[in-house]
Amino acid sequence: MHPHLFLDKDDISQLRRRLQDEDFNRPNVLGVTYSQIWKEIMEVADSTLRRKSMKIYEGTYNYPEGYLMSLVEPEQPPRHSFRHPFWTGICGSLSRDMTNLALAYVLAGERAYLERCRSMVLSICEWEVWSDPDYPTPERPFPCCLDTWSLLSGIATAFDLLYDEFTGEEREKIKNAMIEKGIIPIRDYALKKGTWLYSPERWPNGYAMLHAGFGIGALSLLGECREAEEWVEFEKEKTLQFLDREVGPDGGLIEGLGYGNAAIAPLLKFMVALERTTGDSMLDHPAIRNVMLLALYTLAPGGKTAVNFCDAGGPEGCKPTFSLLMAYLAAVKGNKYAQWYLAETGLYKEDWGRDNLFKILWFNPSVEARIPSDLPRYRHFRYTGWVVMRSGWGPSDTLVAFKSGPYRGHGHTDQNSFIINCSGEWLLNDKGYQRYERPYPSDTPDIDEEKIRLMHVFSHDTIGHNCVLVDGRGQERVGGKIVEFNGWNFGATVVGDASEAYPNLTKALRRLIFMEPNTIIVRDILESDRPRTFSFLMHTTKEGKVKTHGREITIEAQKSRLRAYVIKPEEVTIEVKTYPYPRTREEGHYVEIRNKEKSPRGEFLIALQTSSR
To answer: What's the CA gap between 312 and 15, in Å, rounded?
Structure first.
């Protein structure tokens, strides 16, 4: 019986009744009321109805002015010759629209929402393929990719929610399209040894999204297709493989927060639908709670940004993620830490896009929000090689994050790097998402080949991170490791070993000591087979004001300040440098501390202290 994936007819009736429930419509810690969420969902659906087309491929060789694609009866996008995953965004947008229209219809009953959604679903079912035939190349396109996840999961959700509104002929058409263009291509690719769908190590978030789409599609066809049960069992094994192998014992996610959430959220949807539909539960797997701890610890003071190691966010940090996971844990499991995270970040005040269904379904303001002050203030995420240390959980506290771990996926050459946040401001920062070394359709005419190269170097390579350079050179694409971590009641220490990442060093050890509430000591021990020039780098945002006086360095932001003192080496040169690509969003500056005399052995000893202004 449909719907059954995420809610049934009784749930829909309950969601309607909550509009009149005072407990859901009074001021609360989440910052919004149920009626406000309902209103937002209807506004999103109304906005979708008003949009009749969208412009795609803008800025490409084939379509410099863009190609106008219908949103009433979306046709398969035309071929293109620009090496860019256009269909990822296109199909993500279509999935969002179909899901929100279907949701608005089952809640409010407006026929206009149904008819637009029906038109979109049936039109997309006529496409030849649900994956870009020109990506990554026209000669060797993927048989399925993130566009397949979007279309399969979106259409499966709409099929489930609107099942009674489709005719028998329409249902057969949708079912066949899901199987032939989504489920079968994913299954066949996942059975092929060596592909990124066979095992999660090669592309964790891609593996997770495609398998979640496969599972949701299969669950929507239970009772409609005899192979569906077999597909569900296959997906249970693949999901467990991800949870066991890609979520570390402490909750670490190898691709960082952005792509980590991109993996966990779809798998959570599959697991929720699995439990509702079959009674089989995977939701007590320890990975679920452990990822919650990753989200808590990496949240910056004040809750507006988070740690942005790997490809996540930008120079001002990563936007808080894990809205779905935290909403589920708070509303369904009654987790008070998760409710605090939602309240602290204000995530319920934002549009959840294709996940608005879960925003209203898992809205539960009655759960107490508990600040995680009873948790240890320091945590080592062993699998990823991250350590997070904080003075507390308040808006004026200090957070220090350190990284030395595997180089994989969306990683950077930044072993032994660290970042510092005080009062919600990144005084020492990471550049976040790297600029890949290829043209982007959105590039302006002044973004030439050399500027692209430099933007890549300063966002991916060692020079763009708070690391060490050797004769101006950084690390190779090799991992590091945490060799020591200890925490006590007023501080913590971590030692990272990046020796294997430097081709010109035999030893590269960094010890960082954090002493509450605001003192950090960093010591580097560097050894080589010949005299070298060693550089200690300190990056800050473009808003950070940097001053130097002798051995002292001060970085001032709007609400906070960082003071640093160079204890070793005895003879140093300190320079403030700007990035060599002005007038871009990645613009910023950094401090370079160098030894004056070359030596085969280098040592840096830097004392740092944060303060609120």
So the answer is: 35
Please identify which residue in the block is written with the tokens 């769908």.
197
Give tens-digit pLDDT for 5-35. Answer: 999 999 999 999 999 999 999 999 999 999 9
Q: If DSSP codes are grouped into helix, strand and coil, which group holds residue 21?
A: coil
CA–CA gap between residue 428 and residue 290 (Å, rounded):
27
Which residue carries 């940097």 as its tokens? 546
269: enclosing H helix or E strand: helix 256-278
Q: What is the pLDDT of residue 444?
A: 85
Beta carbons of 88 and 147 less than 8 angstroms apart: yes
Q: What is the DSSP letter of 19?
A: G
pLDDT, one tens digit per residue, over 162-191 is 999 999 999 999 999 999 999 999 999 999
Strand ranges of the sheet holding 386-390, from the earlier edge strand across to the other edge: 378-381, 386-390, 398-403, 417-422, 425-428
Which of 465, 593, 468 is CA-nearest to residue 527?
Answer: 468
CB count in 10 Å sphere of residue 500: 15
- First CA to last CA distance, the chain: 60
Query: Hey, how many other C-beta atoms are within 10 angstroms of the C-beta on 90?
Result: 20
DSSP assignment of 127-142 equals SS-SS-TTSS-SSS--
Q: What is the number of other CB atoms lying within 10 angstroms of the CB of residue 11?
A: 14
Q: What is the pLDDT of residue 441?
A: 87
Q: Find where tokens 């990046």 sit.
A: 498
User: What is the length of the chain?
Assistant: 613
String of DSSP letters for 215-244: HHHHHHTTTT-TTHHHHHHHHHHHHHHHHH
By C-alpha distance, which of 453, 460, 459, 454 is closest to 437?
453
Q: Output the DSSP codes for 144-184.
A: S-HHHHHHHHHHHHHHHHTGGGS-HHHHHHHHHHHIIIIIH
Rounded CA-CA distance 235/227 in Å is 13
Sheet containing strand 589-595, strands side by side: 468-470, 534-540, 589-595, 572-578
Provide the CA 407 distance to its chain's centre, in angstroms. Answer: 17
Name the token pair of 304.
């507006």
CA 377 to CA 512: how far, in whole Å?
16
Confidence of residue 81 (pLDDT cuts 50, 70, 90): confident
Given a contact cutoff of 8 angstroms between Cβ atoms, the answer to whether 373 and 40 are in contact is no
Q: Which residues contact 329 (CB under 8 A, 6 or more apart)?
A: 288, 289, 292, 335, 338
DSSP for residue 409: T
Please tell me what DSSP assigns to residue 74: P
* Sign (positive or negative) of CA dihedral 578, 579, 584, 586: negative
| CA–CA separation, 386 and 380 (whole Å) | 6
Q: What is the DSSP letter of 462?
A: G
Averaged pLDDT for residues 334-349: 98
- Tell me how crowded residue 562 is: count the other CB atoms within 10 A of its CB: 25
607, β-bridge pairs:
521, 565
476/500 Cα distance (integer angstroms): 9
Neighbouring C-beta atoms of residue 603, cutoff 10 Å? 16
Pairing of strands 560-568, 599-612: antiparallel
SS3 sequence of 343-364: HHHCHHHCCCHHHHHHHHHCCC
Please give the helix or strand (H or E) that residue 214 lies within, else none. helix 204-220
